Amino acid sequence: MQYYHSVHLNEEQCQACTICTTRCPTEAIRVYQGKARILDERCIDCGECMRTCPQDAKTSRVDQLDEVFRYPYAVALLPPSLYSQIPPAQFHVDGLVDALAAIGFDATADVGHGAEHTAAAYKEYLQEAAARPVISSACPAVVRLIQVRFDELLPNVIPIESPMETTAALVRETLANEGMKPEDVGIFFVSPCPAKVTAVKQPAGHSHSNVDGILSMRDVYQELYPRLNHKGNPGGRRLFPLARPGVRWGYTAAQAFEVRGIHLSLEGLDQVVQVLDDLSLGKLPAVDFIEANACPGGCIGGCLTVQSRFQGQVNMHRNIRTLPTRSPLQREDFQTRYAAGFYDMDLPLEPRPAQPLHEDMGQAMQLMLRQEEILHRLPGLDCGACGSPNCKSLAEDIVRGWTTEMDCIFILRESVQNVAKELWDLAQQVPPTLHKRDRETP
Amino acid sequence: MTHVLEFSFPVEGRGFSKAGDAASRVKQLLKQAAIPTAFIRRAVVVAYEAELNMIIHSNGGTLELLVSQEEVVIRAMDIGPGIQDVEKAMLEGFSTAPPEARKLGFGGGMGLPNMRRSADELHIESDPELGTVITAVIHLRANTV
Ligand SMILES: Nc1ncnc2c1ncn2[C@@H]1O[C@H](COP(=O)(O)OP(=O)(O)O)[C@@H](O)[C@H]1O
Ligand code: SF4
Ligand SMILES: [Mg+2]
Q1: ω before A133 within 30° of 0 (cis)?
Q2: List of domains in chain A
Q3: How far is the CA of B98 from the centre of ligand 1 (A)?
Q4: How far apart are CA A169 and CA A268, in angstroms?
């Protein structure tokens, strides 16, 4: 299986500092031959390495803005997090849409609207779900993390599409009803993070994404900001009504706010990993729902946003007040869709376990024996100088055949010492014919 | 039965803050060994309950993980004080957990019954002098999933 990844390394910029190797939540990064390498089968495109790289050597693949003009009718999908980027003084809910029209979008659709549907679908699902706690599937990095590191928890992940996908499906439907040809419509998500890019380019839980392109929020913001509140902007079109509850999904705790029962709201992968570890031991049995966001602060803390997470929080608090409080969701329309499976993922979430040392159990066990033996010889300092995140993973990398023990500076030093000692011992040996001469020369 | 892999993890009596550390390692190791997920899930339940019982009820001991292509064995060996009445201990809801453990939410009396449900074999030997040895075996055959 070939895995798509939005996050990748800009080789020229990488100084091989090894900071990213220890911060990656799936231990997906190694430094080999002076450059960081990302292991395809482990990376979840969370963007943590983009955040932590001091050289800005990690970047995300995104589509270019001019892709938009390839479609006769281009729609911008606006995530709730976008509303946290615009300073309150410049924010006007309709002015935003007009400015996007000035960039070239024929219409906009709010993922916050789709989130109202998603929230209602979560509520229904929670009433019938067998496996507890139910884990939100809205953050694609968390879904990938579970596939890669916690596949035993896949039955707990809610099999309902993300707000982004649901919104895109609603856009398709609305425009088809207006008589537009599907191929004429281009749907572009303005993404706060690289994980959403991967969720579109290689979806989990469905065969095909309804989103045609992914733009970086930074790229769009650069075009958007100077056009905000211009007198000459064309009148933009907003496809769906927007209200506060949906836009709150840009923060942590909005989802949990929507569902009944005992819930936890997690932000940042440290928290997420800690709780998933607990869950896989059967801890936290009383919890009904877990909202988990890979980014600190939720989507507004995504690494493709412009504002700092905290500035974003402040902006959001103010901007959201200009929106109506009541959810525009129509109960009957929702019930019909829910019953018809409109919100459901159409494929099961597959495990992507990266841990087995070999697919064959017998061989895997033999490799583990060697791994333990090697681990025993390593100093256990987890210094990371070898380019692996810690001693345990260096031992693993060695038995996988990716590297050798000499990558460990302590083992290297020991070997050099041994060689030096041998050299010294050899130097003490005097050939028989030199014995005499040795004595004669002063 | 000889096992290809043998690991052991020390467990401290009253070491509540470390509860789950040994069971987590068991999970990681079984994943590396390419054991199918359904078996891992059962082995982890057993390991975690055994680890907890040593923390709550014993003066400490060792959790062992033994693995071959045929079976996974979890063995919890502690240094006492032993289980007074094993038959009673196996009853659902029976617990002698001290207040300090109950304060932390432990002591539901479901640990041993859950271990019996999750393992194919469960052997308990207990002696007030020598301590308790609990051995749980999970057979790696498809029909026992
Ligand atoms: N390792 C052990 N040493 C001493 N007593 C134990 C041990 N494991 C279990 N027991 C006894 O068996 C009882 C039932 O255990 P369990 O079913 O795990 O419930 P709980 O741990 O919630 O009390 C315990 O309350 C304790 O009296
Ligand atoms: S994107 Fe996340 S998972 Fe991938 S290499 Fe970077 S830190 Fe690791
Ligand atoms: Mg117990």
Answers
A1: yes
A2: 7-60 (3.30.70.20), 65-339 (no CATH), 366-428 (1.10.15.40)
A3: 11
A4: 29
State how far the Cα of A348 lies from the Cα of A206, in Å rounded to an integer: 8
> Tokens 């507004």 identify what position?
A300
Q: Residue A112 and residue B71: Cα distance in Å, rounded?
A: 50
Q: How many CB atoms lie within 10 A of CB B25?
A: 15
pLDDT tens digits, one per residue of A410-419 = 999 999 999 9
The CA distance from B44 to B22, in Å, is 10
Angle, nearest 10°, between helix axes A111-128 and A163-177? 120
Q: Give the residue from A260, A9, A253, A11 showing the smallest Cα distance to A129.
A: A260
Q: How many angstroms does the Cα of residue B95 sit away from the middle of ligand 3?
A: 8
A chain contacts of residue B29, beta-carbon cutoff 8 Å? 368
Task: Tell me whether residues B20 and A283 touch, CB distance under 8 A.
Answer: yes
| Cα B94 to middle of ligand 1, angstroms | 8
Query: How close B2 comes to chain A (CA, Å)?
Result: 13
CA dist A214 and A208 (Å) reads 14
Q: Amino acid identity of A210? A: N
pLDDT, tens only, A177-204: 999 999 999 999 999 999 999 999 999 9
Angle of the B37-57 helix axis to the B111-118 helix axis, nearest 10: 150
- Dist. CA A276–CA A282, nearest whole Å: 10
The Cα-based distances of B40 to A278, A391, B119 in angstroms read 15, 24, 11
Residue A45 predicted with pLDDT over 60: yes
Residues 17-56 of B with CB under 8 A from A: 20, 23-24, 27-29, 31-35, 37, 40-41, 44-45, 48
Tokens, residue A2: 């070939």
Task: Look up residue A367 and give its amino acid.
Answer: L
Strand, coil or helix: A345: coil
* Mean pLDDT confidence for A424-428: 90
The position carrying tokens 């709201």 is A265
Q: Is A27 in the pocket of ligand 2 (CB under 6 A)?
A: no
Report pLDDT for A122: 94
Q: What is the pTM of this model?
A: 0.92
Token reading at A296: 């600190």
Nearest CA to ligand 1 atom 24: B95
Rounded CA-CA distance A61/A215 in Å is 9
Section B26-34 average pLDDT: 96
Residues of A at the B interface, defined by Cβ within 8 angstroms: 151-152, 277-278, 280-283, 351, 353, 355-362, 364-366, 368-369, 371-372, 396
- Say how many CB pairs under 8 Å bridge A and B: 62
